[in-house]
Amino acid sequence: MGIDYGQLHDPNADYTMRELSEETMELTRSRGETRDVSITDVQTTMIDGNFPWTLVRVYTDAGVTGTGEAYWGAGVPELIERMRPFLIGENPLDIDRLYEHLVQKMSGEGSIAGVTVTAISGIEIALHDVAGKILDVPAYQLLGGKYRDAVRVYCDCHTEDEADPEACATEAERVIEELGYSALKFDLDVPGGRETDRANRHLTDSQIDHKAEIVRTVTERVGDRADVAFDCHWSFSVGSAKRLARAVEECDIWWLEDPVPPENIDVQREVSRVTTTPIAAGENVYRKHGQRRLIEDQAIDIVAPDLPKVGGMRETRKIADLADSFYIPVAMHNVASPVATMAGAHVGAAIPNVLAVEYHSYELGWWEDLVEETVIDNGMIEMNERAGLGITLDLDTVAEHMVTGETLFDPA
Predict the structure, then answer these.
(1) With respect to CATH, is domain 39-137 assigned 3.30.390.10?
(2) pTM for this one?
(3) What is the pLDDT of residues 93-131, one digit of tens each?
(4) Per the CATH hierarchy, to which homologous superfamily does domain 142-400 belong?
(5) Radius of gyration over every alpha carbon of the chain, rounded to an integer in angstroms
(6) CA neighbours closer than 13 Å in the CB half-sphere of residue 220
């Protein structure tokens, strides 16, 4: 409401100073009542997707329910049930405080890494959905607003014979032309060439040649129609990773992902520094503390946190902020349902340095049926003004695809 301040002294004006003051006080009271809300319950249901997705719901006495998702892992629902008493009666708007509260309370269960962080991540995402709905703003607004109206999605692609370069290239063209993606990823930890002892992580020259042929064939067929990344799944020794990275330097490769195991940052840095091929890593590192050395030592060219695994939405935002101070972009690893995928999009909208969010379920025909809204359209996730995560679970689809023995959570 615009105010003509000249009317404040006009006895014939529609509003007097007292009336305006009373109106402001009433608005303040109503907002205060909106913020006076408590958590009443936390429930989980596990979905049998191409991964076992753990969906999390936070219920409140305001009748507002938030939905989140935890990365799959044995014991995650049990850990969330263990955390439930620490959340009942708390204000869901205090996201940061509750996150740290859970980290502290669950320290005995190992809350600096592993499935405990994953479980906390699912709750944290649900809290963003609750808070956005209570305050009637999209979740990206809780993270500082948006840099972009749409977030790019990269499609993790597969073929019946993933070791066949021509089959990979054909699938790449199909995904571009039929599904509308301009960003793709293929696996490189596939058999091919003269195999030796796979346990020692060493690649023979013929194995290097085979993997390089996959990269060349796909990138040449795709041309400038799409960016293409390649995932090694932490499979190779430092020497083999260096040789492979150098062998594909002439190709137009978006990034080479996880060529070495994630534990040794010094080795990760060594691989990145000897090649012009961009190196990405980060999906198996937890919280901002775990990602810190990867970023500060500039051991990677692209950081790839997995949002429902690394600590949630605000933790991913903190990782992105740290990466941005070193001019490192973010490509979010993601094997999730539409719930955590949308959470990733909200973070991607709110940070300056996002490249894309992964989509790992294009072969799963009912993935998009889990929610009522369209999530991915033509390789992009469009942001909108819907409150919270902006999605509504289709409980019939959830019930149809629950893991055997699971119980559907309350519909509210």
Answers:
(1) yes
(2) 0.91
(3) 999 999 999 999 999 988 899 999 999 999 999 999 999
(4) Enolase-like C-terminal domain (3.20.20.120)
(5) 24
(6) 10
